[in-house]
Design goal:
- The protein has 259 residues and is of the alpha/beta class.
- It has two domains: 184 residues, P-loop containing nucleotide triphosphate hydrolases (Rossmann fold, 3-Layer(aba) Sandwich), CATH 3.40.50; 66 residues.
- The chain is built from eight helices and nine strands.
- The structure holds adenosine-5'-triphosphate.
- The site of adenosine-5'-triphosphate (ATP) has 13 residues, from α1.
- This is Nitrate/sulfonate/bicarbonate ABC transporter ATP-binding protein.
Length: 259
């Protein structure tokens, strides 16, 4: 899987810094290079700038220093064929008055597209929610609501999927199940993913690379390649290799915490 690091560049940041208007230095001198097909997790102590960086990759907020490139171009090129990105937030953020199908369809409607039934079905099928197309969000568990949120991102057929702690609010069992499902989708569809998490275990299970960040000011401390082959499953979680990698990320995080 490490060979994928040689794919074409999807996102590159060089010397990127971000100082908020109130003077908080959220990021300083960040260099990061994300290649096609990678699954990159951002981990680090609270306040190290993970969400800030993810939002900047999404074009939601500019840096105050440095340079960012998307598919070797500026942000203006994002949205064209082969250069689409989608964002999944920690909260499922569904419209409570609309059915699952209507929620999933939203991005297509917002872009003025009609006759979306087939694509809605396809997206629902990817997350295993075909039988819930007419249900309302309140009728679903937290894990199912998050699946709807993921389907709503997938319907746009993104090339780059940005996920900000999507499973942070779920119980361990549901989280492990959704990790497995996400990985299976990633193995099948081969998007590039940038994933923010607080969980070392989750980051190692999912990623081809774990980027460890430190706080005050937010910066990249370590970049750890997770060179375990796909498909990853319960056996990988139980393996010696997995635990070794988790230790490596934990040690790096411990260093980040005392900096
Ligand atoms: N809109 C804003 N205005 C001012 N400061 C902000 C803003 N958003 C974030 N910050 C600050 O920037 C720093 C980085 O925040 P950010 O949310 O990116 O970190 P994080 O690593 O995602 O944190 P967490 O793990 O707690 O979600 C923090 O000190 C935070 O208080």
């Amino acid at each position: 899987m490490s060979t994928m690091a040689h794919g074409r560049p999807v996102f590159e940041a060089t010397g990127v810094g971000k100082t908020y208007a109130n003077g908080t230095v959220a990021l300083t001198d960040v260099d990061i290079d994300i290649r096609e097909g990678e699954f990159v997790s951002l981990v680090g102590p609270s306040g190290c700038g993970k969400s800030t960086l993810l939002r900047m990759i999404a074009g939601l907020g500019q840096g105050t220093e440095g340079e960012m490139r998307w598919w070797e171009q500026d942000f203006g090129a994002v949205g064209q064929a082969g250069r689409k990105l989608a964002f999944v937030f920690q909260e499922a953020a569904l419209m409570p008055w609309a059915t699952v199908a209507r929620n999933v369809e939203l991005p297509l409607r917002l872009s003025g597209q009609r006759k979306n039934a087939e694509q809605v079905e396809e997206a629902l099928e990817m997350v295993g929610l075909q039988d819930f197309r007419n249900a309302y969000p309140r009728e679903l568990s937290g894990g199912m609501q998050m699946r709807v949120s993921i389907a709503r991102a997938l319907i746009t057929k993104p090339n780059l999927l940005l996920m900000d702690e999507p499973f942070g609010a779920l119980d361990e069992m549901t989280r492990a199940k959704l990790n497995q499902e996400l990985l299976e989708l990633w193995e099948r569809l081969r998007w590039t993913v940038v994933f923010v998490t607080h969980s070392v275990y989750e980051s190692v299970f999912l990623s081809t690379r774990v980027v460890v960040m430190a706080a005050r000011p937010g910066r990249v401390l370590d970049d750890i390649v997770i060179d375990a082959p796909a498909p990853r499953s319960k056996e990988f979680r139980a393996s010696h290799e997995y635990h070794e990698l988790c230790n490596q990320v934990s040690e790096s995080l411990a260093r980040a915490a005392v900096l």
